[in-house]
Amino acid sequence: MRVAVVGGGPAGLFAALLLKKQDPGREVHVYERNRLDETFGFGVVFSDAAEQALAQEDSEITAAMAAASHRWDSIEIHHAGTVHTSTGHAFSGLSRKTLLKVLGDRCRALGVELCFQREIDDPETLRAADLVVAADGANSIVRGRYRERFRPAVDTRPNKFVWLGTAKPFPAFTFYFKPDRHGLWRVHAYQYEPGFSTFIVEARESTWRAAGMDKAGERETIAFCERLFAEELGGHRLVSNRSIWRSFPTIRNERWRHGHVVLLGDAAHTAHFSVGSGTKLAMEDAVALSRALGTHGDLPRALEAYEEERRPPVESLQRAAQASLQWFEDTERYVELPALQFAFTLLTRSLRVTHESLKARDPAFVENVDRWFADQAARQSGISVSVKPAPPPMFTPFRLRDLTLVNRVAVSPMCQYSAEDGFPDDWHFVHLGSRAMGGAGLVFTEMTNVSAEARISPGCAGMYRPEHARAWKRIVDFVHAHTQAKIAMQLGHAGRKASTRLSWEGDNEPLPSGGWPILAPSAIPYFPHSQVPKEMTRADMDAVIADFTRAVELAIEASFDMLEVHAAHGYLLASFISPVTNRREDAYGGALPNRMRFPLEVFDAVRAVWPEGKPMSVRISAVDWYPGGIEPADSVEVARMLKVHGCDIVDVSAGQTVPDQRPVYGRLFQTPFADRIRHEVGISTMAVGNISSYADVNTILAAGRADLCLIARAHLWDPYWTRHAAHELGFKLPWPDPYESLNAYKPRFT
Ligand SMILES: Cc1cc2nc3c(=O)[nH]c(=O)nc-3n(C[C@H](O)[C@H](O)[C@H](O)COP(=O)(O)OP(=O)(O)OC[C@H]3O[C@@H](n4cnc5c(N)ncnc54)[C@H](O)[C@@H]3O)c2cc1C
Ligand SMILES: Cc1cc2nc3c(=O)[nH]c(=O)nc-3n(C[C@H](O)[C@H](O)[C@H](O)COP(=O)(O)O)c2cc1C
Fold first, then answer.
1. SS3 at position 662
2. Per-residue pLDDT tens for 209-226?
3. HEC states along 726-748?
4. Which atom of ligand 1 is nearest to 278's Cα?
């Protein structure tokens, strides 16, 4: 087999040596346009885990890498005159030149033909090879040549960065955050060999331009950065190596193989330097490729197996890298946080490191965070939190007006489609009662509709008859009498999504018979085959407001602790907010303040009736996931208006506005919207959506991404979710008296 490798970076060289080692009969050529010692950048970072994984493939390489590596354990965060250090991170740094030399030497020893200063202009010239490995980096010409096959997408990020070096030794992986008159500058610095460190400077484009860096060459860049970081550099100089300001490109390809050509490393995918994994990924690709070729005699099958194996971990790391790079793009949002919390958000930015995993690495750091969090929760709620050690953040109190929650976990609203004429029955009693017993601090009812016509389906719960208040009160009284939980009612009107089937019979599908007339801001049906809603008149608006106020009076009678207005998921109020569903030309359509007019009228009417001391939340869809729809920046403005009108906390959900939405799902996928609103508006938020572990809850809270976490499906699976979390975390939650015997019982689940 003849193998042509384009690119002599880590991916190309490692692939070449593994392929040759696996089958010495293979002819392996590496074509590299530069000399071996002529490369960009300075050092690269590996974690201990990454090194161990690579060691299995070629122990000589990893031994040589280990010998040349500089190791460190700590991360230091310099911000606002403070330094916070977290330990236990086990990283190593290595000079890129050394890495390439180690790889190049091993290639030569195994008989790989290394052809330096050989630029491949057109991969078609390599037709004679049985396999072409495109390891030619982020600007891959091979990928470009077959772009319609690989279908690459390049997402060029807005921040500017420059990769510099310095002789200053850093004892830890070091972050500096330094404001000057142009804006905030970030530095990522680490030592990779004695006397050499990488020093990456990053800033927002506006900051970079204001400082004149858009016109600066290497010399001016160095002079500027040396002045700016004179104190941090302590007399050491900065050095450049093709150090130009760049924007990071996140590269993805729909396919990584075409005929006998396969993409490896940065040519296939990039991951932002702040997760320090580009070289690791590139080398892991090489491992997977050689294993696939070793296992499958058939080349197409081997390349397919390679892509199948590598895609999931690469995409997972790219998601982490995306969260991390966004943190660095949005750092300005967090600079006002207390320095300890700022450090915690930085350490957990990629969502991969959690409160629990950080605790395993550095218990003292997390203990400090927990103590600080508990103290501020005690101040906020007026309830002393003096237990030692400090409780995990999820088990700290939170106050909204006169309502104090014992902890920060809430059962998210979940329609049960099990009511008749809006009446909650025994199902709802057991469903909500058992979840309140399960330990959550707050339990939401499902979307409860303000009139019979406002219901999504004939099975939806309501609050429109005096008897409904009595039926709900039975549930509320149970929760109050037997649990520590508080209970909130979510009030809504389904709008154009009303008069549909029970969800398990056809979600959002119109009722085949027995339907009722429906209302919306504009006469646009949900599906083309859905009922066309009536465009609401002023009289219709007044009637809906009256329905809401009647429902609130009933909710007061039923003794609910809190109210939530449902203005998300494409229901009536949400469909006023979204420009996709609101095409009105009167004062209730057009610009966002107009589209918010009716939802705010409803909110004001509800707030006026609801007791002053009881809090109110509003659930919103922070993004429509649809072109021309609500974007996260709009939802910041929505939250701003809600705050002015007296909303206490925003429940930040997303989507479900239109059936052809294109959501980006994933772990904690909606949390960034709650985080943004909380910081940009200065209002409390609830995060929801794929928060399924207590580690995530503690991380979200301690980082200040939200004040409460709503858990929906995990609570269906496990009504005692919060009790299980407490058990795992070693935190004692009191049991109701009839279960007192559990205080001396150790559950075993396996
Ligand atoms: C600022 C910055 C900091 C980084 N920090 C880290 C870090 O700390 N840790 C880490 O793991 N990763 C880091 N990376 C990422 C890392 O550099 C890359 O992910 C890694 O180099 C990818 O290896 P590769 O072999 O795929 O590509 P490259 O290393 O880019 O190698 C591609 C090679 O192909 C050659 N080439 C290109 N076109 C041709 C052609 N037509 N003909 C012949 N040769 C060609 C190039 O000269 C180059 O040598 C960083 C990247 C940047 C930009
Ligand atoms: C069965 C079910 C019913 C739901 N009903 C409602 C509802 O009545 N009101 C609402 O705002 N969201 C509703 N949702 C959405 C959830 O509150 C929550 O936002 C969503 O499930 C994401 O959270 P999770 O990943 O923890 O499940 C429902 C979700 C489920 C699974």
1. coil
2. 999 999 999 999 999 999
3. HHHHCCCCCCCHHHHHHHHCCCC
4. 19
Q: What is the DSSP letter of 596?
A: T
| Alpha-carbon span 534 to 268, nearest angstrom | 51
Is residue 165 within 6 Å of ligand 1 at its C-beta?
Answer: no
Please write the tens of the pLDDT for every residue from 405-450. 999 999 999 999 999 999 999 999 999 999 999 999 999 999 999 9
Which residue among 273, 277, 317 has the greatest number of ligand 1 atoms within 8 angstroms of its CB, and so is best to mutate? 273
Q: Is the CB of 439 under 6 A from ligand 1?
A: no
**Ligand 1 probe mutation, 5, 101, 136, 198, most atoms within 8 A of CB:** 136
Whether pTM > 0.70 for this model: the answer is yes
User: Is the CB of residue 266 below 6 angstroms from any atom belonging to ligand 1?
Assistant: yes
Tokens in use for 747?
A: 């559950």
CB 672 within 8 A of CB 326: yes
> 236-288 pLDDT, tens per residue?
999 998 889 999 999 999 999 999 999 999 999 999 999 988 999 999 999 99
pLDDT of residue 747: 80
Parallel/antiparallel/unpaired status of strands 27-32 and 2-6? parallel
* Ligand in closest contact with the CA of 666: 2
H/E element, 535: strand 534-535
Q: Which of 176, 192, 417, 571 is catalytic?
A: 571
Write the DSSP assignment of 117-178 as a string of letters. Answer: T---S-GGGGTTSSEEEE---TT-HHHHHTHHHH-EEEEEEEEEEEEEEES---SSEEEEEE
Active site residue 571: yes
The answer, yes or no, to whether any atom of ligand 1 lies below 6 A from the CB of 11, is: yes
**Nearest CA to 700 among 730, 742, 667, 671?**
671
Please state at what angle helix 48-55 crosses helix 59-68, rounded to 10 degrees: 150
